[in-house]
Amino acid sequence: MATNIPQEINLHQKSACLTLKYTEQSFDLPAEYLRVYSPSAEVKGHGPGQEKLQVGKENVSIQTIVPVGNYAIQIIYDDGHDTGIYSWSLLQDYAARQDRLMANYLDRLDSLGLSRDA
To answer: Which one of 11, 24, 90, 118 has the fewest CB atoms closer than 10 angstroms to its CB?
Structure first.
């Protein structure tokens, strides 16, 4: 799958959502989803099996987005997290797999008796 660069990126503060608009489609990515799947080492770890499950992120918001060269954005969250760099290809992948990844996240929380709520 070729990487598409979004034509527009819109941050919706009230709905805590990031909208990526492409030529023929658009995707709404909730802040919670982007936060719990942050590509940062804090979330992903430094290798397989080192991932850290994020809890209490249901009401997290995006404070701002910062361009990173011509290939990515950095998302600054209101919980202080600011180290993830979201490449265009990663965002495209997250958009395509949003339902499956979010369901997996909710299942993992449930199986451990943890909550999305802070």
So the answer is: 24
Contacts of 57 (CB under 8 A, 6+ apart): 32, 35, 36, 79, 116, 118
Q: List pLDDT tens digits, range 41-79.
A: 999 988 888 999 999 999 999 999 999 999 999 999 999
Residue 86 β-bridge partners: 73
Determine what percent of the chain falls in helix, strand and coil, rounding each to the nearest 5.
30, 25, 45
User: What one-character DSSP code corresponds to residue 113?
Assistant: T
Q: What pTM value is reported for the model? A: 0.93
Three-state secondary structure call for residue 97: coil
d(CA 110, CA 91): 26
Residue 57, amino acid: K
- Give me 111's structure tokens: 């199986």
Angle value at C-alpha 58, between 113 and 5, nearest 5 degrees: 125
Q: Work out whether the CA dihedral 41, 46, 47, 50 comes out positive or negative.
A: negative
